[in-house]
């Protein structure tokens, strides 16, 4: 496993480019090496500070990748320099291209019924020869039932988009029961893949301002998470760093 480095109470990877991680993903798939992949942004970091179970779940991830400018700056305070933003919305399409080329099938779990169906259709159109083994929305009565459906599909890769911390906890508690080799917590990826929600313009993404674009679209939901959440994140990271030195 690629070495993890400490950022406060969490331990994350420091892959520098999407290409670097994509190469490792392909290598692990070819070696039939199981893995759980999660993404860490400042919102997830804040949740982990209030939820010790979630903190442990994130630290049990095989790979925990940086998502957003907040984590990039917070990691720098801990001596970790990150080059690219490895958010799932940009990285997952790269991994899906590899799945299509290598005939690795994918199962989509999460979001509302219409959204996950639309996401499956759009992804099939964009990634030639991608085999989607099955889909299910994020609303189900029992883990056992949905796990049986996922396993029966024969999928190699499972994408779980149920939001933090539900998606990571679902993967973590069912790791040994899930047949897909790779389990990825994808957050709001299905919303963007289905084109239900628009992505920020490329310039804003290059400038790490996608959070600002999303806040403009959903100010009531995103204001507290982004403005207050960013402040809480940096205060906590600085305090943890100071505490580690004293």
TrEMBL record:
<protein>
    <submittedName>
        <fullName>WecB/TagA/CpsF family glycosyltransferase</fullName>
    </submittedName>
</protein>
<keyword id="KW-0808">Transferase</keyword>
<keyword id="KW-0328">Glycosyltransferase</keyword>
<dbReference type="Pfam" id="PF03808">
    <property type="entry name" value="Glyco_tran_WecG"/>
</dbReference>
<dbReference type="InterPro" id="IPR004629">
    <property type="entry name" value="WecG_TagA_CpsF"/>
</dbReference>
